[in-house]
UniProtKB/TrEMBL annotation:
Residues 1-15 have a biased composition (Basic and acidic residues). InterPro entries: HSP_DnaJ_Cys-rich_dom, HSP_DnaJ_Cys-rich_dom_sf, SSUH2_homolog. CDD domains: DnaJ_zf. It comes from the Bacteria. This is Uncharacterized protein. GO terms for molecular function: heat shock protein binding; unfolded protein binding. Residues 1-29, 464-531 are annotated as: Disordered.
Amino acid sequence: MGDEYKDKYNYDPNKDAPNSNQQFPPEDLDKRIEDIRRIVVQGANEAQQRIKRVVDRASDYWQQAQANPTPRQASTVEEHRIRQLANMWSNQNWRVARELGTYMDLLSWHTDEVWETTLETRWETRAMEIVNEPYSGRNVGMPRALLPVWDYDLPEVLGLKAPQTRTRLDQLDDIVSCSNCNSTGHVLCSNCNGRGWIVCPECKGRTKKRCTTCRGRGYIADEMPGGEKKPFFQRQADNITRSMGGKFADVVDGIRQQGVPLPNPINTDPANKGPVIPCPDCVKGEAPCSCGNGKRICDVCEGARMALCNNCAGTGKLVRHREIVRSFDLRTQSRIVGESVIPQQYLARSHGDLVYNAEITEPLYADAPPEGVPTDVWNATVEMITMEQRQDKPGIDPQVQSRPTLQVVELVRIPYTIARYRYGEQEYTFYIYDNEGSEKFYAEQFPVRWDRIDRLFKAISNDLITPAPNTPSTSETPDERSHGYSAERTTGGYRVPIDLSPYDTDSDEEPKKKEAHDEDEGFDGNDYRYR
């Protein structure tokens, strides 16, 4: 409507109203206002009719959506158990329809089972290491021949998860010379590098050190300036103050000598506090060091320049023995034997019934299953054990390969029940698996809990979108019927076509003005578009 108005009157919104030459005929403006009023009234009437229709039928929809199926009664003990489990499933899962076991039609059910085979294998890896120890004077016998690592009978290791162990081989000791000291038992002292002396740590080789009395200044404070003698308690207090200040100054000086530019917050210079006198304990702030020559005798070798060899403890000999290092690695394999729709990751989390559990100490045969184990399950178990025991790998030395030294097999029976049922004129299937008391459930499809509410909203939304029926309106004017439109007919959907406004034709001048204006402006009689 806005585009037609612009085309007819050449309306330009960018131009200012006072400066433009646009003209708005009063009769056309009245018609346009009347058209807008009619469209608004027709749209409001249409929306009112749709909302009224939805309100009238909403109660019926609610009753239909809340109508539950008829409760079903169990005829057998097994059917009663399945219905109870279905109710348990619907209570645990908020997506499943409430009280599913009470209202579902149980069509059929049957039980089946799958087996979970678990094999735990402890793999052992052996390696031989040579270890040296100082010679202690004990004689060793003639060494025996060295065998491969897997030819030695070692102590048994218990448990599937075992730590690393080291086993020393007897009668394989050798006495060899120490290569660290060249069989002399002595090496150069590592503290003085074989010199027998070290630089004096106090004077750093200068033979002089800073005077501790004046701290290198060469002067001290005059205790009694002008012959004045201080009282006893004042002298004691001054001595304590000087002692504490001196200790703190020493700490600061030590930190400063390490390269940290730390200022001394305490002013210990006696020249800033009164008269001073030369220091009686030094010359120009330096005193002779006690070392005399800037050197100190090495405390480790005591000037001998040599020290005992730590490798052979000064004997010059080593005892070489061999150890077998055993490392263990645990590997676990699981396999589901049997056909089931339930995913294996769900079955692996179930407990089941432990039927067979044993440590494999002898070969197993496929034609001799244990009691209570089906033949096909036992055949799959023997095949898995045989494949796990194969350790031959081409191109690798068998002595360095890992070998299974302990195997434990478990056979667990997992029963499950398949139940087919009908709910809401649609058939479903769900599965109950695991032992009694710890049942678990699985289903690919199931009746959802909010299905009835979903249907309620769909019905109401459809009524809101659907147009009202084409019933004649009581407010139609004769002019509307003559032009062939009404509120119900023109609003079908969301668009309302633009038609001529109904005008009062009581006077003869209004139709003549209307026809003359249409001919002058170049419009037809149905809309406001250019011909």
